[in-house]
Amino acid sequence: MSKAKVYYRLRTNKGTKPQQIYLVYRFGKDDKILYPTGLTCAPQFWNDKTSRPRDITENTNKDIVHNRLNDLQNKVEKYILTEKAAGHIITKDKLRDFLNSTAAPEKPARKSDFLDYLADFTASADTRLNPATGRAIVPGAVVAYKVLNELIQGFAEQKKRNYTFADIDLHFYTDFVEYLQGKQPATDKKEPGHTPKQYATNTIGRYIKLLKVVLNEATAAGINTNLAYKSQKFKAIKENSESVYLTPAELGKIAALDLSTTPELDRVRDLFMIAANTGLRYSDFTQLTPANIKQTETGTNIVLTQKKTGGRVVIPANKTFLRIWGKYAGILPPAPGNTKKFNDTLVKIGRLAGIDTPTIKHITIGGEKQTITGPKCEFISAHTARRSFATNLYLSGFPSISIMKLTGHKSETAFLSYIKVSEEQHAELLRKHWEKIAIDNEQ
Asked: Rounded mean pLDDT of the chain?
């Protein structure tokens, strides 16, 4: 029995954005079917000869896509060969019907039931691809989807409603936001046990944003036709973050600590300093390998594709990075089990380093503005390193457009809202600029 002529191709080999992967089957020389698989791959990561993703480190989701393509091709080839062996004629319509039933097995049976769809969507989150990057969803996002599912299921239980897609409107939005704020609906005063903790405004905004991603997926698949969630009022609420950054002097105190008798603190400190000298996110600096280190004529570069955005960044390795990298012989120690443990350890390190400047943070929790005070060390987290990297470079006069290339920020507006620069620091930057102009004019 001869092999069926099934292979894959991209929608286009031009550009750098992920492209749809199509299954191709030829019925004859000039007759073929092109079927969208729902999978994507950037042209630079695609091998036309093998009709598969290239086996290179930068292509982080290659194994997931490769396995799915193999599985689908095996099923299609088996179907075609079985039909031919039975003397049946393969037509485009018959093959398309088979593909429709085989390539999208994850659609819920009850398409009108939003809660079932959300549960199914969450269950497959760890194998789902980010439509914007064509890469596997990062572990942090997978966890966030699971929390979103738990929150909405708990909300539905409190409301005693089996929500359908038709129910996801502005009334749902208002009630769900109040639920996340910890406000007890009047209809359920006797059941306070269902009320969740009070979430901060930006946390609520992130869950609304994830909810809209789920609804967009359902709409694109033809499962949802209710577009009320696209209203401007159905928005991911947000407030300006007051996260701290560490100055070069404070980072120096952390680097100078002798933690040789506390290996766990020593390892976390080193990973934090790696991040503070590269601007990498937790999901990236905890996964660095020798494959990310590239030697050039002028020095050493760190080259990687960011897990969150899929963007490629090139960062020069400074002396601090190289010292720590050499300390572990190019194999960085694993981070603690989760980011919370990592952050808790950082607070201890900050306290040992004497980073105790009185700090005030304003945050909205449960819909109420709150003021939190404490020594600066209590506000340090893994992300403080990345923010410190960007802020300190900006304050040194390094061009913001170049910093954005190092951090992966796409817009200057987003970057300027990210860094932590006070009005006084902006004034000082302008003063230094004027002084430089005066010196240049005198020469």
From this structure: 85
pLDDT of 347 above 50: yes
252 plus 224 within the same structural domain: no
Q: Which of 113-117, 250-254, 320-324, 363-367 has the lowest mean pLDDT?
A: 363-367
Q: Considering its fold, how many domains does the chain have in total?
A: 3
Together in a domain, 430 and 358 = yes
Q: What is the pLDDT of residue 270?
A: 97
How much is the pTM? 0.63
Residue 271 lies in a domain: yes
Please tell me whether residue 316 adopts helix, strand or coil conformation. Answer: strand
Tell me which of 103, 134, 161 is where a domain ends. 103
Same domain, 26 and 172: no
pLDDT tens, residue by residue, 226-274: 999 999 999 998 877 778 899 999 999 999 999 999 999 999 999 999 9
Whether 240 is in a domain gets the answer no
How far is the CA of 35 from the CAs of 46, 50, 410, in angstroms?
A: 18, 18, 33
Asked whether residue 61 falls in the same domain as residue 146, the answer is no
Same domain for 198 and 269, yes or no, is no
H or E stretch including 313? strand 312-316
Task: Report yes or no on 238 lying in a domain.
Answer: no
What contacts 24+ positions apart, CB below 8 Å, involve 30-37?
A: 33/92, 33/95, 33/96, 34/9, 35/95, 35/96, 35/99, 35/103, 37/8, 37/68, 37/69, 37/72, 37/103
Q: 253: domain range? A: 248-440
Q: In this structure, are 82 and 204 located in the same domain?
A: no
- List CB contacts of 332: < 8 A, sequence separation 6 or more: 270, 271, 274, 286, 288, 324, 325
pLDDT in tens, 48-84: 999 999 888 777 778 888 888 999 999 999 999 999 8
Q: d(Cα 328, Cα 171) in Å, to the nearest integer?
A: 55
In a domain, 399, yes or no: yes
* CATH for 288: 1.10.443.10
The 10 Å Cβ neighbour count of residue 417 is: 12
For 263, phi and psi rounded to 5 degrees?
-55, -40
Cα–Cα distance for residue pair 382/282, rounded to 1 Å: 7
Q: What count of other Cβ atoms lies within 10 Å of the Cβ of residue 250?
A: 22
